[in-house]
Design a protein that fits this description.
26% helix, 19% strand, 10 helices, 16 strands, seven-stranded mixed β-sheet
Amino acid sequence: MSAQQESFDYRMPPGEITGPSAWYGTDLAARSQEWIRPFSGSELDELDAAMRGVKERGLEIVDIERDDFPLPTLGPALDEVRQDVLRGRGFALLRGLPVDHYSIEESAIIYFGLGAHMGVAISQNMKGHVLGHVKDLGRHEFDPNSRIYQTTARQQFHTDTCDIAALLCLQPAKSGGKSAIVSAATLYNEIRRRRPDLLPVLFQPFSTDWRGDSPLDSVGHYALPILSWHAGLLYCRYVRRYIESARRFDDVLPLTDQEIEALDLFDELSDDPQIHLKMEFRQGDIQFLHNHQTLHDRTEYEDWDEPEKKRHLLRLWLNCRDGWPLPESFLPRFFTLEIGSPGRGGYLLPPGCSLNAPLEAE
């Protein structure tokens, strides 16, 4: 731990966290009409018209901003969705985009245009990709320089380094591949009730692997708390695979028995079907998640043999101008605390690399 990290104030919530963000999966599964929002016919017409306007003007996908994608009636509704994601339950699912009627480019334009109404897209890797492809590329889940979303393996509960993560389902899996999400507030409350002695462990920094994407060639890891309490808000930053793989570095100490116990309990509670919520992605579904308060997972899946039918999701990482203020402890991974900044989180690009939106998985 550096001297700077030691100076951080690792405060904890004064008591149990209440409100819409502290939900249980069994409750919300029975009330899916509250978080699944189908597109209306008129809204789909607006999306189609906005997409065709972008094509007529020859705009590149990466250059699409909110004003370039006018949505007279859907736009205000998306503002309400964003507030529910950022300051409500922490997620939403939009349903019914007819992606089978569009080319991959047209679907990506609509998706990116929708995203521009939610926030500003940031880079998801060192290649500058603002449009990610969640697809099996034959990678191995235990390769320290690969990403689990490039395999068919289960992802395990984690968060990403942005305000909102979005997924558009172009093609569902043959079987499996369900999305699972869990509330960080609920996990905190459950640990507070069951094992309050382990809570302080989760508010201390854990060394985490950059997995080959460090902005500094000589640094292979960074340190960040799993849970943080700042401005009256509970934040979560968690990727256990990366915490464990950071132990490959000589200057990172092994996890203590107490740390392992705390991580095991965090995972055990996340895996509890009473606590998490599973949802099946249908073709044309768009999921929005607030990364600072909602962890997500994906179950293992079986894919189709035909290349054109393989499971394929498009991903956006978005920062919001009305997003949460980040605690100082996030600086080692988020680079800046400025709300809405395209440089907050994501990845710092090497010289000569610019943002781009590939239409094929790389």
